[in-house]
Each structure stands twice: as structure tokens, then as C-alpha cells.
Amino acid sequence: MKGLRWRYTRLPSQVEDALSGEEGEQEEEEEEEAAPAPAPAAEDPPEPQLTAASQVLGASEIRQLSFHLPPRVSGCPWSLVFCTSRDGFSLRSLYRQMEGRGGPALLVLRDQDGQTFGAFSSSAIRLSKGFYGTGETFLFSFSPQLKVFKWTGSNSFFVKGDLDSLMMGSGSGQFGLWLDGDLYHGGSYPCATFNNEVLARQEQFCIKDLEAWVLS
């Protein structure tokens, strides 16, 4: 009688199972580590540094405006070159204070109704025979949340400085922002340049405070 032959299968031990499981976890961890990192979020613009305290804009308004300024002026100090409380209500004085300034300008106003609004000009405010500026120019209003009206591309009527008036944005005979020679009366109307709303509560207004800042 021939001897019986036994066939058997070796089962893995608990130790081997554990080691196999650890190797699988390590492979998964390595795959996770190899995954590409997400793109970094866009950085907020640096906090603007003002050379003097503003009597028109608070810290929150300044911060909100900084998000809409061109990248080339990000981080530049804000220099107060003109304010009605110090220099008086005179457009000619504003022009004189702006002489020799090459940087962009921020014009901020508060009217007798307490409304705050203004404009960013791609270059310093100055006397001119015609309109000047670039598509960086925009109008804005806090009513009470910030609204910014950027260039539409419809025309290039950005800024024009006469002896007796300052105009920003135009179309159909109306100006997005208009100031008289005494810097006391002004007006704001919808215009094609910026497709803006009326910046003040009324189309015609009286100025209480005005500041001009150079960003460079």
C-alpha cells in the first residue's frame, strides 16, 4: 500500500498580514505626498502708508480702495499734497501743490450731505488744454459700501483741468465728476467713460472737505 501524500497551503501569519498592511499604508501616504500642492492664494495688497491723517477716509475706506489701485502703486506711500482744511478752497492752489508731481493722484471728497466719493487719476492733476490720462483712471463712491466705476473703453475723456473747473469722465455733454474753480460747488452725472452712477446723493453738491493724495 502506497503512502499517502498530503498537500497543504501555507497561510500567512498575523505578523505578515500586519506588515503587508503597513506597506500598503506607506504606499498610499507616498502617493498622497507626491500629489501637487495647490496654487497659493493671491496676496492682499500691502496696507497703504499715509504721510498724514485723512479727514475724509477712515482706515476701512483706505483698505477697500487699495484693492482697486493699479499694481504699480501697490505699497507706495500716500502723500497728502493738498487739503481744503489746510490750503483753502481753490482749484488753482490744488494745481500749484501738484506741480512737479509725476505720480498718480487720488482725489477724495466729502460733501455737505456727508457723502464720500472721488476719483483716481493715472497721473497728477494739472492744467491741460485737453483730456489726459489712461484707462487706470476710475471713479468711486461710498454709499455706504464702496462702488468703483472703471474705464469702459468707450472714450478717453479721463481728466481735463481748466483754470475754472476740473472734469473727470465725459459723454453726451455731461461729466462723471465736475468741480468748480472755488472747489465749493460740484456735479456728478452718468457718463460714457466710466458708465458710473451719480457719485453724490444729488447730481449737484457742495464740497465740505477735499483731499488730494499722490501715490508714488
Features:
216 residues; alpha+beta; 10-stranded antiparallel beta sheet
Describe this structure in words.
19% of the residues lie in helices and 28% in strands. Strands 1, 2, 3, 4, 5, 6, 7, 8, 9 and 10 form a 10-stranded antiparallel β-sheet that branches. The longest helix has 21 residues. The protein starts with 13 loop residues before the first helix and ends with a strand. The N terminus is likely disordered. Pfam families: TLD (PF07534).
Number of strands: 10
Terminal residue distance: 108 Å
Q: Please, how many helices? A: 4
Integer-rounded radius of gyration: 32 Å
Q: Low-confidence parts, pLDDT < 50 over ≥5 residues?
A: 1-20, 22-35
The description of the largest β-sheet is: 10 strands, antiparallel
Q: Spell out the helices and strands N to C.
A: HHEHHEEEEEEEEE
Summarize the model shown.
With 216 residues, the protein is α+β, with helices and mostly antiparallel strands.
Helix-strand blueprint:
Layout: H1 14-34, H2 59-66, E1 78-83, H3 84-87, H4 91-98, E2 105-111, E3 116-121, E4 138-142, E5 146-149, E6 159-161, E7 165-171, E8 174-180, E9 185-187, E10 204-215
Antiparallel strand pairs: 1-10, 2-3, 2-10, 3-4, 4-5, 6-7, 7-8, 8-9, 9-10
